[in-house]
């Protein structure tokens, strides 16, 4: 089982204020307590799988700020395709969870799979720890580990959303998740010191580099893309440490960064 940094959800989530911040803190606290064990149970057990999963649930839950759809749900009352056949079903079975479960049929289906009485007590789906299990079961039912292994965020988004709504947001959270995992000492990524990276490269090592640079006070994105800003920050770091300021991160630069 991959050991996750205690603050990984906080590293991924956006900064918010007020009541929203209180909600976010509560959800993150409860989910974090069972995160690693639950992900392992559902074989979300590699860096790519975990990163893609956390990126998607972060977006779907408005940055871990809610496990309950903001709308009333009344618009779902006549959605027979969701199994809503009784008066009030729209509100009763509106979106809940980290990946929002919607409609009587879905509440029944996932309740059966997880042996939860979601039909009789739909609010169970909004409890953070339970909503994590539901999201993981959804992930498994839709074979999303397969697309995560291919680093295919668009296919995952289509399976969850039906389209590509919020793709830019999901990409941002994915980059943050990769950076948090790569920099968090999980042991799941081979030592980046073995790889040389430079302008134009993409991937987990770039995200790890950017996370380290950002922690050292450099204004760089943590999107996993080695852009001009990242190269400039690297060159500045190298110069300040007596290294060749070429903006290329090889073994000596990695050692100095670490």
Topology summary:
Elements lengths: L7 H5 L5 H15 L2 H7 L5 H14 L28 H4 L11 H11 L13 H14 L2 H6 L3 H9 L5 H17 L20 H12 L12 H13 L10 H7 L1
Helix pairs in contact: 4-10, 10-11
User: Fraction of residues in helices?
Assistant: 40-55%
Q: End-to-end span in angstroms?
A: 25 Å
| CATH hierarchy: architecture of the largest domain | Orthogonal Bundle
- The structural class is mainly alpha
Percent of residues in beta strands: under 5%
Please give the CATH class of the largest domain: Mainly Alpha
Rg, please? 20 Å
Distinctive features:
0% strand; 52% helix; Lysozyme; 13 helices; Muramoyl-pentapeptide Carboxypeptidase, domain 1; mainly alpha; elongated; 258 residues; 2 domains
Q: What would you say about this model in short?
A:
With 258 residues, the protein is mainly α. Helix content is 52%, strand content 0%. The radius of gyration is 20 Å and the shape is elongated.
What does it look like?
By secondary structure, the protein is mainly α. The protein has two domains: 176 residues, Lysozyme; 66 residues, Muramoyl-pentapeptide Carboxypeptidase, domain 1, CATH 1.10.101.10. Helix content is 52%, strand content 0%. It contains 13 helices and no strands. 43% of the residues are buried.
């Amino acid at each position: 089982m991959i050991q996750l940094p205690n603050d990984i959800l906080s590293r991924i989530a956006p900064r918010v204020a007020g009541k929203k911040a209180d909600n976010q803190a509560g959800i993150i606290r409860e989910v974090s307590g069972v995160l690693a064990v639950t992900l392992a149970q559902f074989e979300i057990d590699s860096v790519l799988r975990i990163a893609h999963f956390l990126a998607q649930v972060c977006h779907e839950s408005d940055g871990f700020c809610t496990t309950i759809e903001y709308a009333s749900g009344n618009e779902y009352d006549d959605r027979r395709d969701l199994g809503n056949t009784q008066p009030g079903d729209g509100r009763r079975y509106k979106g809940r969870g980290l990946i929002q479960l919607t409609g009587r049929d879905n509440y029944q289906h996932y309740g059966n799979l997880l042996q939860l009485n979601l039909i009789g007590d739909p609010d169970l789906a909004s409890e953070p720890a339970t909503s994590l299990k539901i999201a993981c079961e959804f992930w498994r039912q839709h074979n999303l580990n397969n697309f995560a292994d291919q680093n295919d965020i668009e296919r995952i988004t289509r399976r969850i959303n039906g389209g590509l709504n919020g793709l830019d947001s999901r990409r941002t959270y994915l980059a943050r998740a990769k950076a948090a995992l790569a920099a968090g000492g999980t042991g799941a990524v081979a030592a980046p010191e073995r790889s040389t990276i430079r302008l134009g490269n993409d991937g987990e090592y770039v995200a790890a580099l950017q996370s380290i640079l950002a922690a050292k006070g450099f204004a760089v994105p943590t999107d996993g893309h080695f852009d001009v800003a990242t190269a400039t920050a690297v060159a500045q770091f190298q110069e300040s440490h007596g290294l060749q300021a070429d903006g290329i991160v090889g073994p000596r630069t990695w050692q100095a960064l670490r």
